[in-house]
Design brief:
The protein is of the alpha/beta class. The protein has two domains: about 270 residues, FAD/NAD(P)-binding domain; about 130 residues, Rossmann fold (3-Layer(aba) Sandwich). It is built from eleven helices and 17 strands. The strands form five sheets. Strands 1, 2, 11, 12, 13, 14 and 17 form a seven-stranded mixed β-sheet that branches. It has a four-stranded parallel β-sheet with strand order 8-7-9-10, with helices on both faces. Helix 1 packs parallel to helix 11.
Length: about 425
Amino acid sequence: MSDSQTAKYDLCIIGTGLAGLAATMFAVNRGLSCVQVGQTGEINFSSGLLDLLGVHPVGEKNALSDPWAGIDALVRDIPEHPYARLPKEDIQAAFKELLSFLKETGLTYHRRMNHNSAVLTSLGTLKPTYGVPHTMWKGVAALKKTPAGLILDIRGLKGFSARQIAAALQNDWPDLLTGRISFPGMDHLNEVYPEHMANALILPENREKVAQAVRPHLKDAQIIGLPAILGIYRTHEIVSDLEKLIGLPLFEIPTIPPSVPGLRLKEAFERGLRAKGVHYFSQNRVLSARAGKDRYFELDIGRKTTEDSLKSRGIILASGRFIGGGLYADRLRIKETVFDLPVHQPDSRAGWHRRDMLDPRGHPVNRAGLEIDDRFRPLNSSQRPAFKTLFAAGSILAHNDWKRLKCGAGLAVASAFGAVTSFVRICR
């Protein structure tokens, strides 16, 4: 393909996790032409919950009621954290825009504006989170009122035990019954999978069969908790239909990954972004990228060998950490995989981990990543922006221990917003 024929875009977003998808959403909402490149993102493994900030300080295991006050404290305590690169009003605006976009695709989230909500997990623990899928929201209310409830598990579904959940909740929600059902048409299987059951519920006849299986367990229950299987698509219809058939409100409990709520989130993004004209190179990666002479980056795309080439005015690295492929570790050091940018990391591999796996301070390797300036541009070895229009977002950023802070979604969304906003300011 000649240079004159090479496709040109305003932004190339590398990565298909939440940070990459959110960055693409913010970009197209601002009228930018976008191309997205990446293999399956980590979003498939997410619970579907949108954490903003759940714990701070981590060592004290202090679950936060007000995540916004928590961000103020986090920024004071860890001024290098990516949240410190944005005013709090921008983070609030980013979440508002995200939830509005998802609602337009048919995926509704609920939140308490200035407070986290407690969501029941498959371990029977209560997880503080900010954005809650509509399929789980009735469970949030039930945890406050603790009516007579029923938790059901499904024969063959691994990692989900109604009895274990009820036992863990005996102090917080003592009036809980438990039961087990077989999923219609899958009762002969030794193992069943949430996504298969979710797809089966697209058929009304399967909803009726599930309702028939549930009814013998109801007794005095006023609400029912189920594993997260209530459809990947048309979840409002499926939940409403099952509630009418059973005669009680339902709520989902997240399962171990890969999870149906994570798949819903991924599908909602891809559906909404394709409708806005985003071009995808799915299951591909950037094999090489370089700054051209015409203020455009030149990128070669493919699986193992170059299959396509393109040009873009800017790039957002939202390629994740080790699982996502944004970072790579050998025996000596951690490397960034596209531009070989400097990675903030311990001086030697011996310093990656502490002796105690449960050390309250966490492990230094979890805070490894790219250093950025106030415009979310990765820094070179001279501590200057590596390129004028190269940005980074998400878990690839340094100084964040997002799993322990329970801020993964917030980090992804806020940094994506910051990167796109900075690109617009620089280039317009």
